[in-house]
């Protein structure tokens, strides 16, 4: 029955080397960039005379380039080293966030968001592998830390975007550039030594990794899951019809819900249920929640409740999916992370403009029904591929291998 056990004598998840906290801090800021533009999408559409579908391309250009670059991030980091790759990613984000802030048209912002996505890919994929490799307490604790950073970043991003966006839609972009510069300084000064440099991997390593049945199944599940995730995140500001500050607070609540279940609820559930079974349950719950969102799309209070409940569900699924991927194969973690993340973010890139076009062509509820269908497809993939998910449930890494990783991390 149990899919994940925790040693009662294991080090506390919160007692980590300073270098880990530096990467976690920068990760929070990086994840803020995902939801930062959410509250200002209607304002950008209005001020720059763009349609909702055009405004949604701010997500698509960002996530598409993130996805494509993810496939090669492990190849780059294996040659540059983790620290240099993290710093390069942060520099790229600062430059393109500033470019977006200074843009004069929606097309320019879309282009700068694409460049931003390149930096995001280099940073996020490398950060996950770095935290897992350097954290004390084992891979499970490290993944919870990473998901905590995601949850906090996704919670604070929309709130900051809403508050700054209430002044000008340019404000959130200037804010991101400033915060990323702080993250750059933190990594540069606190991460004194580069974590143990991995052996160079082939440029095609991520694509080869997807030949592993378990990784391919989890990546396919994540593709459809991210369709649901980003329709809920990127499309919802339009039917809510709130100002930037109001949207910021709604999605702050959504992000807080996601963070709580990522850090607190998911680890508890993982002690009692197998990862694949837990994923089936939470994706089924997400399907129901999205159907409800479609049914109450014209009721603002009902839709806000559905969004917050969605955050609670997404927090669990994020943590379980990430842990399943990182523990299911003997691949270098940077390779597994880049392969999985590349496919996952492709789903996110497709979802926002498709949702906006469906809303315009059919009805405001249509994007939520599409998202529900995508989540249900994720459940079906898990059911049909359950025999291949044995390693995802049991974990591939032995205790000796995990201990070696922790020693390497402490040495860094």
UniProtKB/TrEMBL annotation:
<dbReference type="GO" id="GO:0005886">
    <property type="term" value="C:plasma membrane"/>
</dbReference>
<dbReference type="InterPro" id="IPR020846">
    <property type="entry name" value="MFS_dom"/>
</dbReference>
<feature type="transmembrane region" description="Helical">
    <location>
        <begin position="85"/>
        <end position="102"/>
    </location>
</feature>
<dbReference type="InterPro" id="IPR053200">
    <property type="entry name" value="YfmO-like"/>
</dbReference>
<feature type="transmembrane region" description="Helical">
    <location>
        <begin position="342"/>
        <end position="362"/>
    </location>
</feature>
<feature type="transmembrane region" description="Helical">
    <location>
        <begin position="212"/>
        <end position="235"/>
    </location>
</feature>
<feature type="transmembrane region" description="Helical">
    <location>
        <begin position="173"/>
        <end position="191"/>
    </location>
</feature>
<feature type="transmembrane region" description="Helical">
    <location>
        <begin position="247"/>
        <end position="270"/>
    </location>
</feature>
<feature type="domain" description="Major facilitator superfamily (MFS) profile">
    <location>
        <begin position="19"/>
        <end position="390"/>
    </location>
</feature>
<feature type="transmembrane region" description="Helical">
    <location>
        <begin position="303"/>
        <end position="321"/>
    </location>
</feature>
<keyword id="KW-1133">Transmembrane helix</keyword>
<feature type="transmembrane region" description="Helical">
    <location>
        <begin position="114"/>
        <end position="136"/>
    </location>
</feature>
<dbReference type="InterPro" id="IPR036259">
    <property type="entry name" value="MFS_trans_sf"/>
</dbReference>
<dbReference type="InterPro" id="IPR011701">
    <property type="entry name" value="MFS"/>
</dbReference>
<feature type="transmembrane region" description="Helical">
    <location>
        <begin position="368"/>
        <end position="385"/>
    </location>
</feature>
<dbReference type="Pfam" id="PF07690">
    <property type="entry name" value="MFS_1"/>
</dbReference>
<feature type="transmembrane region" description="Helical">
    <location>
        <begin position="143"/>
        <end position="167"/>
    </location>
</feature>
<dbReference type="GO" id="GO:0022857">
    <property type="term" value="F:transmembrane transporter activity"/>
</dbReference>
<dbReference type="InterPro" id="IPR001958">
    <property type="entry name" value="Tet-R_TetA/multi-R_MdtG-like"/>
</dbReference>
<feature type="transmembrane region" description="Helical">
    <location>
        <begin position="57"/>
        <end position="78"/>
    </location>
</feature>
<feature type="transmembrane region" description="Helical">
    <location>
        <begin position="277"/>
        <end position="297"/>
    </location>
</feature>
<keyword id="KW-0472">Membrane</keyword>
<feature type="transmembrane region" description="Helical">
    <location>
        <begin position="19"/>
        <end position="37"/>
    </location>
</feature>
<keyword id="KW-0812">Transmembrane</keyword>
<protein>
    <submittedName>
        <fullName>MFS transporter</fullName>
    </submittedName>
</protein>
């Amino acid at each position: 029955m149990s899919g994940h056990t925790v040693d009662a004598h294991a080090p506390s998840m919160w007692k980590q080397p300073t270098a880990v906290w530096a990467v976690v801090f920068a990760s929070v800021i990086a994840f803020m960039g995902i939801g930062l533009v959410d509250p200002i999408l209607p304002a950008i559409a209005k001020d720059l005379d763009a349609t909702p579908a055009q405004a949604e391309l701010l997500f698509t250009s960002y996530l598409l380039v993130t996805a494509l670059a993810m496939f090669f991030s492990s190849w780059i980091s294996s040659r540059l080293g983790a620290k240099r790759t993290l710093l390069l990613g942060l520099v790229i984000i600062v430059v393109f966030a500033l470019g977006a802030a200074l843009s004069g048209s929606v097309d320019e912002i879309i282009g700068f968001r694409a460049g931003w996505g390149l930096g995001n890919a280099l940073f996020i994929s490398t950060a996950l592998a770095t935290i897992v490799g350097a954290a004390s307490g084992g891979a499970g604790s490290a993944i919870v830390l990473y998901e905590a950073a995601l949850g906090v970043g996704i919670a604070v991003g929309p709130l900051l975007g809403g508050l700054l966006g209430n002044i000008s839609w340019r404000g959130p972009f200037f804010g991101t550039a400033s915060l990323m510069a702080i993250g750059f300084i933190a990594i540069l000064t606190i991460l004194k030594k580069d974590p143990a440099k991995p052996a160079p991997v082939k440029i095609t390593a991520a694509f080869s990794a997807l030949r592993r049945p378990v990784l391919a199944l989890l990546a396919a599940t994540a593709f459809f899951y991210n369709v649901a995730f980003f329709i809920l995140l990127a499309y919802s500001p339009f039917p809510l019809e709130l100002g930037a500050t109001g949207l910021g607070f709604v999605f702050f609540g959504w992000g807080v819900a996601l963070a709580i279940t990522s850090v607190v609820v998911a680890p508890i559930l993982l002690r009692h249920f197998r990862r694949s079974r837990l994923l089936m349950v939470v994706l089924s719950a997400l399907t129901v929640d999205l159907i409800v969102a479609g049914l109450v799309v014209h009721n603002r209070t009902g839709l806000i409740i559905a969004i917050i409940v969605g955050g609670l569900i997404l927090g669990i699924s994020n943590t379980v999916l990430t842990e399943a991927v990182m523990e299911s194969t003997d691949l270098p973690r940077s390779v597994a992370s880049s392969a999985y993340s590349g496919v996952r973010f492709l789903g996110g890139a497709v979802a926002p403009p498709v949702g906006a076009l469906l809303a315009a062509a059919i009805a405001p509820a249509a994007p939520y029904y599409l998202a529900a269908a995508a989540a249900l497809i994720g459940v079906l993939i898990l059911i049909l591929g359950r025999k291949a998910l044995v390693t995802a449930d049991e974990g591939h890494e032995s205790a000796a291998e995990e201990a070696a990783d922790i020693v390497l991390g402490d040495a860094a």
